[in-house]
Queue: 2 jobs
Job 1
Amino acid sequence: MDALRFYGIRDIRFEEAPEPIIETDSEVKIKVKAVGICGSDIHRYALLGPYVPGTVWGHEFSGEVVAVGKNVTKVKVGQKVTACPALYCGKCDSCKKAKFAQCENLGVIGQHHQGAFAEYIVMEEENVVPVPENVSYDAAAMVEPSCVVAHGYYKVNLDPGDTVAVVGCGTIGLLAIQWAKIFGASKVIAIDIDDAKLELAKKLGADETINSRNKEPFEEVHKVNGGKGVDVAVESAGTPITSAQTFSLADKGGRVLFVGIPYGDVMVKRLYFEKIVRNELKVYGSWNAISAPFPGKEWTSTVHFIANGQLKMDPLITHRFPLSKGVEALEMTAERKVSFGKIMLHPEDK
């Protein structure tokens, strides 16, 4: 089958790979219809390299069931699905407590197991999530990043009427804006340094937008929020600077949620750090997109809100390529010569 295999930093190749087969009674074989490039994929491609050279990569996908093991009951052949890419060990202390996101050996497809940048993939039944027919394959491939945001909001107990600031309006930030509205936020403030992203944030539900280039974000937040901080500040840009600044955005007794991944040391100025103490903040780290019962309510909730139209995925997708152009797509992200959001690859397109 055709696949993208990851060999080294900025070395991914479109080539033949063995087609996976069902080996146990609980497995499901899926024909991949759409697979997205994750922000973490971009960093690993450009900076870190693969876990195992030559592995088929990719983890955000959707497809059609083409075969099932004899004990599979959740899905049937011909059904539209997505799948949770997380692989937990089931043996560590965290797994025994059903805290799967904290699994000591947590993995994801594309690391040591075949990923979804391919024509076919085989997954365990418990990882497979049915998707209604009215949801497009592209939107279904966006379920996993949406679950990342939902997982964080469930942790902070976002309440109706809360005010929310979202720092960074990439894919995760734009999903965080939409989820905040679904949870009942009374005001959502979007913060970025890109006016085009802020314009999209406004269209997707942000009540206020702030371009924070050469400005102190907390001062701007206070201007648009009645002279105070927000109830929940969400860091979704994943940069060292914004990771430090986000502490300053929450009001007294507020909550700070980190869903971005800063690939660098975070040096926190006193101006920002003292807010944790003086404002008695609650700080939450959020990792992955899974809970119990696995894969978690994040998945059923996301599918529900995509199906009813409250989560809009299509505006987040800026580029679509056939899988054969995946090398060019990833190189485009490494060069960063063009602005891009979610990039979707389609194995069936030639």
Job 2
Amino acid sequence: MAFEIFEQHFGELTEYVVQDAATGNRFVVVPEHGAIIRQLSLRKNLTLFSILKTPPTPQAILADTKSHSELLFPFASRIPDGKYKFLGKEYQLEKNEDGNLNAIHGLVRKKHFELGDQVIEADHASIQLHYHVQETAGYPFDITFSVKYTLHADGRFELTYDAVNNGKDPAPVMFGWHPYFFLGNEDVDAWKINIPSDTVVRFNENLIPVGKDQFTTEMPVLLHRRDFDNCFVVKTSGSGVSTELISANQNVTLKIDQETGEGKFNYLVVYTPPARDCVAIEPLTANVDSFNTGEGLNILAHGHHISGTISLRLI
């Protein structure tokens, strides 16, 4: 059988490798550090591309403040001053952003996830991980959060999240993934991006939404001398949309598919870091600060769950 799953050490961390020996496609997940994907390699023809930028050493991963590959739950991006109101009650989250201004990126980052099912079949292999969010300061809800990573024989990588409310009270939930992508040894200025949106969220100076504007840039757009740090409302005419990161020189495109529709990934953040060696492309289930605005926010009743899938492939 071509697929295999095995354990290895990365410094003091323990990680799991899921790979397809027939193609070389593989991903590496670190359960004890937020269940992040540390490495993701996918093949296009004769070339195996490492497409996910993460810190290169165990020490750098443990010290990371840029949320490389992190899972963002039960909220993503910023909540101003860490304050939100839900069903008439006010809550105060820890202000954990640099500068102590906002709560940012949720409550499961860098947490120790428990291993779940490991599956190997003829056409795919997957690994599932769980974390229990319970009675956290500013979030007094009881949620089991899980993520399943799957590698398919056709070269697709999938991330599927699931959240279930174990508590008696309704709970607000939002999910996002925070990967930084690159293609070969080129920098950002060599690539084009195709963003599936005609609406961009307008931010204030604190990167908190204050409205929406039309996004009329012709797609795909060359990233040369182009900076993005924006949240977009994606077009949701069907069951999914695709963002494309395109390298014409290498004849390869990274296609990032996100489920859309009720409760799914109807928002997208695109960010070009100052080093211009990668692009963050972050599917979100709700708008920034949705805990206050309700835009896209999922509200889970007792015993109910919500899920969604993001998939990647090279074309």
